[in-house]
Amino acid sequence: MNTKRGHQAEGETIMGQTASSQAGTLESNDIFIRMTQVPEGGESSVNVESIVMKQFGEDIIKTITQCLEDSGLKGVNIRANDRGALRCTILARMEAAITRYKESIK
Amino acid sequence: MKTFRTMLFMPGNNPGMLASAGNLGADSVILDLEDAVAPGEKDAARILVRRTLTDLRPENVTCVVRINGLDTPYWRDDLAAAVTGGTDVILLPKCEHPDMLREIADFIGTSSRNGGAIKIMALVESALGIENASAIASFGGPLIGMLLGAEDLTAGMGAKRTPEGDEIAYARGRMLMACKAAGIAAVDTPFPFVTDMEGLAKDAAYAAQLGFSGKALISPHHVHAVKTAFMPTAEQIAWASRVIETAEAAERDGKGAVSLDGMMIDLPIIKRAKSVLQMAE
Questions:
Q1: Fewer CB under 10 Å: which end of chain B, C or N?
Q2: Locate the HpcH/HpaI aldolase/citrate lyase domain: which residues (chain B) (predicted)?
Q3: Helices (H) and strands (E) in chain A, counts
Q4: pTM of structure
């Protein structure tokens, strides 16, 4: 799995995308998470932008990555925009995004 | 009853608010899954509320979850999340009949984080709910109180909501008496005019004077004023302490009747004094 800091360019699309979800908001203390399916055989990736990237970036990426692994989902690109969310909130938003993503596959 | 003196509503899908739940001074927080959450966000809100209850539970604050009404497709999932999270109390909106409480109680069963049953409060906010207040209040079991919801009520009545609250006088009285008769908490409706602090103080003082156990709030800025309104004065506390001391002394001395400052100290007076001291704790 690739883990990245920073922000992917707006408008970037993934060919063959069939499943996606999002959860959270861009409000203070929240985190906005968008999950998209990568093309068949593609590797999962986590891309995080945060207002506290220097202090907590590694922890945020680790938390998100762990949630994704626990979900059993493969080939998923996650883009997260963090506005100072507590771990509890990151877990909740990931759970919502994963649940919605699985619903979108059905 | 101190638990219900200030009951602060907070949106169930707002992590910033939920994180501050323990720091706003309210005795109880109502984590709202109903009106404060858009239909498309119900799922995310119940996850966030459950996680908040399990991972970020505020200390010394009673946690209440307002689920969606029984007329919606959401309430079972809301209840499941609240029970799993270990909420102290479930607040059932649009309660109009004791059968609705039975449905909730059956769903909850006996599960809770402390092994005891999760409690229920009924939010009464319709003419039918007010007319059935006695039947609802006497449900017993896990029902620990009723909360008046005047916004929906007055909307249904076609009445104008005012800071003076004349339009809800009957509803307040009827629900209050039903709760008193059943021995459960009676919680007054929130004051909806958020920036009218003078009106809030009057409204809260009036509710306290009537005998309500407390008041629901829709703004953290209202906590102090409402708490003050429901807090006994130093004079009242001193009086209550003297009543209890006098009554205990009389009991030790085997006296049947005793007076204090020319007033006969009987059971209702002792009961009131105990209530004052309890509110002051």
A1: C
A2: 5-220
A3: 2, 5
A4: 0.88
